[in-house]
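Appendix B. Chain record.
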Amino acid sequence: MINGKRIAVVMPAYNAERTLEKTVRELPDVVDIRILVDDSSTDKTAALAESLGVQTFIHDANYGYGRNQQTCYREALASGADIVVMVHADYQYTPSLVLAMASMVASGVYDVVLASRILGGGALKGGMPRYKYIANRLLTAFQNIFLGVKLSEYHTGFRAFSAELLQTLPLLENSDDFVFDNQMIAQSVMFGFRIGEISCPTKYFEEASSINFRRSVKYGIGVLATTASFVAHKMGIVKLPLFDGTGRKVTMKYYSELTHKS
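Structure tokens predicted for this chain:
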């Protein structure tokens, strides 16, 4: 708890058995709620999470990274969280930064905090493939121009959110795939939420999850489409549920039959 606010860490996971324990062990003591959503892993991710004292929810099929996050945020809000930090269970990001990120939100200065791999210049040193680094920089520059903000990167998977933001954004309108992350940032800008960043080292290694070149290209196309949709909605050319307050939110009842608590 920080400043009287309950802190939840949510971990979307798929076949994270080899890295999960290291991730959980490094979570700071200020975390009040620990939640893992297993997207129908084929290994023992869920059983290990339970043994580590983590609230565990299991999808009955592999629905995708975006759908996993929707369940993460729904369950965190249902548990009474005031601040929710998403930490990947693959240990690519250091969990020790949870305290700093949650504190930035708890201070009331920011509504969302992104852990940037670009600030500090450690992305390539941490093993980020050069083609991903170049694509990251190009896509980030493109989005900064059209979204009207100045972020160092849009593509980190380590983020902290206020409960108000998660209750407001129409997250059920987002993709079930990896572009969900990018859509969340675009939505945050559209709805006027304050975005902060913190420098974060990253580690690329065999056990860490990473999308391949083909899926990276698909993600890049999704980022361009998200940006175009943002501009079209803001200019009033089209009205999109993705960026409209009437869009479906994670606090609404939805696909509850797809998950069960273990």
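Further analysis of this model is presented in Appendix C.
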